[in-house]
Amino acid sequence: MDRTADVIIMGAGIAGTATAYYLAKGGAEVVVCEKGRIAGEQSSRNWGFVRQQGRDPAEIPLMMEANKIWRGLERELNADLEWLSAGNMVTFDTAEEGAGWEAWRQTAANFGLDATILSRAEAEAVVPGNAFDCHGAIFTESDGQAEPNKVTAALARAAEGRGAEFLTECAVFEVETAAGAVSGVVTEQGIIRAPVVVCAAGAWSGRMLRTLGLKLPQMWIKGSVARTTPGPIVSHTATWTGVAFRQRRDGTFNIAQRSADHDLTFESLLNLPSFLGSFARNKRDIKLHLNGLAFDLLAGSFSKAALAKELVANRTLDPTPNHKVLDHTLRELHRLLPQTAEVRIDRTWAGYIDMAPDMLPTLDALTNPKGLVLATGFSGHGFGMGPIVGRLISELILTGQPSLNLDAFRFSRFSDGTKLTPHSVV
């Protein structure tokens, strides 16, 4: 294969497929290269929350616009996405935590986003019959949920219907440049020429960009999720109360906890300075492990050839879930929602989150090399942002002017002295 396109996208997760969809709608010739299958990694392994609530202030305008897209997305894509608009609720244990949420609520109100502080009794009305250990809660009624597997697949079908091409099991080994600009990519199926390349490679983005001499600080954080057998309908509000849960239309629950795992690799050492502050604040929620992943991925950190070998060897990252955590999560669900006493875990899975030091994505068109566009680093909350990210990245490429301000998400913040402090509440 030796061919041309207007835009090449590396990665067929929700960010890459949404970008392909909007670019194709705009008339661009797009080729998406995916080393495994569409939505094979974190885009199909997340919780399915679509929330504006608790976002970093920089993300609130994007998520408010994303919410508008989500509300019409099933109709636009002619697909069942299991979209439910029943809000998002997060409980808090003390008046002090409640004051923090009130400060966030006021910030959100400045953008025109309505959120409500609830008393313990009012939280009962949102999730009836609960036994939450809480002082109160914050509730954003306009938030929702959707099924990750269905969403990304529908976006890909819609993009293909408008002329985009998806090459699965086709890893990108190298981004080629000429005279300070990208000229195409070398894939395992051959060379594709294009003046624009989008890196939407999720957890692999940092390694890929290093081959171009670019440093994107990124940590792989493993999150584990379980789905239960069906139970009585309690509430379709996506809820975080020590246990995170959302009840799907069929009565099953997706459940998880805040705690996550980090498998130590060479990348951990390279990026340690950028993440020290974040790790110190969240050390109780992150469990460190030294296992085979450290050695499996060590070689891929040093050379293009070794990275190419690792991309092919790891078509789809499928880490082992933390069953101990998930068993505890189910017990907590039974305690907090007595109505669920009979539900059991039906299946479990895990995925690697591409965590950034400030928990903000990188959405930027670079000038060195010119034509390289980044859409990565979503830090575990990129699913809800997917549609608006696709639209904004397509605007960057097609017009050079996105419809929303992306300054907070610029790549240069990692090198210009910006303090990389997470401001998201959850």
Average of pLDDT: 92
CATH superfamily: FAD/NAD(P)-binding domain
Q: If classified by CATH, what would the architecture be?
A: 3-Layer(bba) Sandwich
Tally of discrete structural domains: 1
Computed over alpha carbons, the radius of gyration is 21 Å
Report the strand count: 22
Content-based structural category = alpha/beta
Count of helical stretches: 11
- Which percent range fits the helix content? 25-40%
Poorly predicted spans: none
Named CATH topology = FAD/NAD(P)-binding domain
Into which percentage range does the β-strand content fall?
Answer: 25-35%
- Enumerate the strands of the largest sheet in spatial order, edge to edge or round the barrel: 6-7-5-15-16-17-14-20
Structural shape: globular
* CA distance, first residue to last residue: 45 Å
CATH class: Alpha Beta
The biggest sheet, with number of strands, parallel, antiparallel or mixed sense and barrel status, is:
8 strands, mixed
